[in-house]
Design a protein that fits this description.
single chain; 130 residues; alpha/beta; three-stranded parallel sheet; 3 strands; 13% strand; NACHT domain-containing protein; NACHT-WD_repeat; P-loop_NTPase
Length: 130
């Protein structure tokens, strides 16, 4: 997935793409849906010079509303947003993480998500991506 993340801008033909890569489960902030959404939004806001000081909510309810808005606000045809999320199977059940309740059902234009997970029926999160 690291190689995929490195090649995204070239594949899109957009050097200005905002590429956010997370290796889920490697840090406390990448182990649950709340921490993952917060860190993704913080990186996206920092990448946009006009939104560097934007406050990202802490509580899950506010984050669930803020996350799709953040993606839509910062994505454009010249600045697509690409989330590369590795090891989705490492995400905790907290806050609907494994059921992917936090992932928008329909992605805004110019937003792409690349996911990976281990195979196996014990990983209930992947079928939710279809």
């Amino acid at each position: 997935m690291a190689k995929v993340a490195m090649g995204v801008k070239k594949w899109l033909g957009e050097d200005t793409a905002i590429v956010v890569t997370r290796f889920i489960g490697t840090t406390p902030d990448s182990s649950d849906a709340r921490g993952l959404m917060r860190s993704i939004c913080q990186q996206i806001c920092r990448a946009d010079k006009n939104s560097e000081n934007e406050t990202v909510p802490q509580d899950i309810r506010s984050l669930l509303a803020f996350f799709p808005t953040c993606l839509e606000k910062h994505a454009s045809s010249s600045n697509p947003v690409v989330l590369v999320l590795d090891s989705l199977d490492q995400l905790s059940d907290d806050d609907g993480g494994r059921e992917l309740d936090w992932v928008p059902k329909e992605l805004p234009d110019n937003v792409y998500i690349i996911l990976s997970t281990l195979p196996g029926t014990e990983y209930i999160c992947f079928p939710s991506c279809r």
